[in-house]
Amino acid sequence: MAIRYPNGKKFEKKRIPKTVKNDYKKDNSFSNRGMNFEDDIQTSNEFYRSQGLAVIHKKPTPLQIVNVHYPKRSAAVVTEAYFQKPSTTDFNGVYKGMYIDFEAKETKNKTSFPLKNFHAHQIEHMKAVLEQAGISFVLVHFRVHEEIYLVPGTFIVSWYESKENHRKSIPKIEIEENGFPVKTGYHPRIDYLASIDKWINGK
Amino acid sequence: MAIRYPNGKKFEKKRIPKTVKNDYKKDNSFSNRGMNFEDDIQTSNEFYRSQGLAVIHKKPTPLQIVNVHYPKRSAAVVTEAYFQKPSTTDFNGVYKGMYIDFEAKETKNKTSFPLKNFHAHQIEHMKAVLEQAGISFVLVHFRVHEEIYLVPGTFIVSWYESKENHRKSIPKIEIEENGFPVKTGYHPRIDYLASIDKWINGK
Question: Which amino acids does the record list as binding Mg(2+) (chains A, B) (predicted)?
Answer without folding.
Answer: 88, 90, 103, 122
